[in-house]
Design the sequence.
C-alpha cells in the first residue's frame, strides 16, 4: 500500500472547532429568524401569517380612525433635543398636557437620535419597531417557558406579533409610542441566557438605568443565588448613573435629589390609568393620597411576590418551567409595587400568557380520564382581563376616579387583581408540585436529634 493510500485510509482527527467570537454570536443571532422560518411547517406558518397580516391591517384601520397621539414619543424626542442643545432637561414641558421629563438623564441621552427625524417618520418607525419588539418578546417568552417545540415557535411568534396588538397594554404602548417593549426584551434576553455567562446582568442594569423599575430583577437574581449576575446588573446601573453625571451633571443632581421624589411630575395616583397596588388602594379609599396604607400593602405584596419568585426558582427539581414561573412572579411583583404603573407597563402580560398557555397545552395533552379544565380556564380568564380594556369602561373623567362605586372598582383595578391572582396561583402551583413529589414545602435550619445526629427539619 502506498503512503498516499495509507494517509487516505487512516482515521482523520476532527478539525478543531472555530472559537465562538462576539462577531459569530451576532451573525448567528441575526440569522436565527430566517432559520426558524425555514424550519417551521409550511401550512401552519402560512395560516399564521395570513391571520397576523389581517389583524395588523385591521389594527392600522382602527388606529387611523381612533387617532394616536404618541405623546410619550414626543416627550422622548424633546428630552433628546434638550440634551443635544444643552437645555434644562427637567424644566421642559411639551404637548397640550404640559408633560415633563421623568426618566433618568441616561435615558434622555439615548433619546438624542430621535431628534434626527421628523415626527411623522418617527410615528411610523416606532410603531413598526414596537411590533418587531413584540415579536422578539414573544420569542424570548417561548424560550423562557420552553414551549412549544422549536419548529412551531416561529408560528407562535408570528401569531403573537399579529394578534398581540389587541392586548390593552400593547395597544396602549403603541398608541403612546412607549419604550416598555424594549425594556422587557432587554430583561428577558438577559434572564434567558446561561447563568455562567460573565456578562449576565448587563442588560438588566441598562434597563434599570433607563427606567428604575427593572432594577427589581437584580434583586430577583440575588435572592435566587445568582449573586455575580446581580452584582453585574448593579455595576452596570451604577455605570449609567456615572455616565449621566459626567455628561449631564446638573440634570443628574436634580433628578436624584429632587425630581425622582416628586410624584406630581409622573401623574395622579388615583386615576384608573394607574394599575398599581397604590392606585387600587387610592380608589378604594376614595383619596388622592393613600399614604401609609398603600405603602404597607405594597410592602407586603413585594415580600410575598419575591418570596414566591424565589420559591419557584428553587423548586426546579419538582416544578416544570420553574424559572419561567419565577421570572413572571418577579415581573408581576415589580409592576404591582411601583407607585405608578400605567396600563402600558403591564406588557409583562405577554410572557405570563405564554406560560399559562404552556400549562394549558400540557393539561390538554393528558389522557381524557385525568384531564381537567383548570389551566385552560385560568389562561382564558387572564387573556380576557388583558383584552378587556376594563379600566377605560368605568366613569373616570375629572375626579370621578375618586368616586367609583364598589361594583366599578373591579374593572377599574383589573390588572392589580389579575396580578395578585397570578401570584396566588403560582404559590398554589409550587405547593402542589412539591407535595406531589413528597418534597418539603420549606427547608428549615438543621436540628440535632437526641442521638446527636443532625437532621433537616421538614414541614409538609
Sequence:
Amino acid at each position: 500500500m502506498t503512503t498516499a493510500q495509507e494517509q487516505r485510509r487512516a482515521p482523520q482527527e476532527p478539525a478543531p472547532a472555530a472559537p465562538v467570537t462576539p462577531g459569530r454570536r451576532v451573525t448567528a443571532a441575526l440569522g436565527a429568524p430566517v432559520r426558524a422560518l425555514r424550519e417551521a411547517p409550511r401550512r401552519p406558518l402560512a395560516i399564521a401569517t395570513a391571520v397576523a397580516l389581517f389583524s395588523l391591517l385591521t389594527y392600522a384601520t382602527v388606529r387611523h380612525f381612533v387617532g394616536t397621539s404618541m405623546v410619550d414619543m414626543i416627550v422622548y424626542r424633546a428630552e433628546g433635543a434638550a440634551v443635544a442643545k444643552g437645555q434644562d432637561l427637567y424644566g421642559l414641558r411639551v404637548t397640550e398636557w404640559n408633560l415633563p421629563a421623568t426618566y433618568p438623564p441616561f435615558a434622555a441621552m439615548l433619546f438624542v437620535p430621535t431628534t434626527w427625524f421628523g415626527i411623522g417618520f418617527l410615528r411610523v418607525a416606532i410603531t413598526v419597531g414596537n411590533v418587531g419588539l413584540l415579536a422578539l418578546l414573544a420569542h424570548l417568552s417561548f424560550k423562557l417557558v420552553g414551549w412549544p417545540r422549536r419548529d412551531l415557535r416561529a408560528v407562535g411568534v408570528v401569531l403573537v406579533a399579529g394578534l398581540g396588538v389587541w392586548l390593552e397594554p400593547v395597544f396602549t404602548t403603541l398608541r403612546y409610542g412607549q419604550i416598555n417593549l424594549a425594556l422587557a426584551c432587554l430583561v428577558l434576553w438577559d434572564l434567558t441566557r446561561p447563568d455562567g455567562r460573565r456578562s449576565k446582568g448587563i442588560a438588566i442594569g441598562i434597563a434599570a438605568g433607563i427606567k428604575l423599575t427593572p432594577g427589581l430583577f437584580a434583586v430577583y437574581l440575588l435572592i435566587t443565588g445568582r449573586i455575580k449576575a446581580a452584582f453585574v446588573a448593579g455595576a452596570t446601573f451604577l455605570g449609567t448613573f456615572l455616565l449621566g453625571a459626567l455628561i449631564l451633571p446638573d440634570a443628574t443632581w436634580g433628578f436624584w435629589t429632587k425630581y425622582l421624589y416628586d410624584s406630581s411630575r409622573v401623574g395622579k395616583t388615583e386615576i384608573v390609568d394607574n394599575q398599581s397596588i397604590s392606585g387600587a388602594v387610592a380608589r378604594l379609599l376614595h383619596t388622592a393620597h393613600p399614604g401609609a396604607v398603600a405603602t404597607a400593602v405594597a410592602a407586603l405584596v413585594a415580600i410575598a411576590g419575591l418570596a414566591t419568585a424565589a420559591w419557584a426558582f428553587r423548586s426546579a427539581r419538582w416544578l416544570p418551567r420553574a424559572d419561567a414561573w419565577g421570572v413572571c412572579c418577579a415581573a408581576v411583583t415589580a409592576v404591582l409595587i411601583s407607585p405608578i404603573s400605567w396600563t402600558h407597563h403591564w406588557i409583562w402580560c405577554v410572557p405570563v400568557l405564554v406560560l399559562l398557555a404552556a400549562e394549558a397545552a400540557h393539561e390538554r395533552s393528558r389522557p381524557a380520564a385525568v384531564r381537567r379544565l383548570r389551566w385552560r380556564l385560568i389562561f382564558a380568564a387572564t387573556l380576557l382581563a388583558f383584552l378587556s380594556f376594563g379600566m377605560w369602561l368605568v366613569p373616570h373623567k375629572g375626579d370621578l376616579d375618586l368616586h367609583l362605586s364598589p361594583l366599578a372598582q373591579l374593572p377599574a383595578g383589573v390588572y392589580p387583581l389579575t396580578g395578585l391572582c397570578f401570584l396566588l396561583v403560582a404559590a398554589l402551583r409550587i405547593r402542589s408540585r412539591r407535595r406531589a413529589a413528597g418534597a418539603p414545602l420549606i427547608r428549615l435550619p438543621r436540628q440535632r436529634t437526641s442521638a446527636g445526629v443532625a437532621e433537616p427539619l421538614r414541614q409538609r
Q: What stands out?
A: Strands lie at 442-448, 454-459.
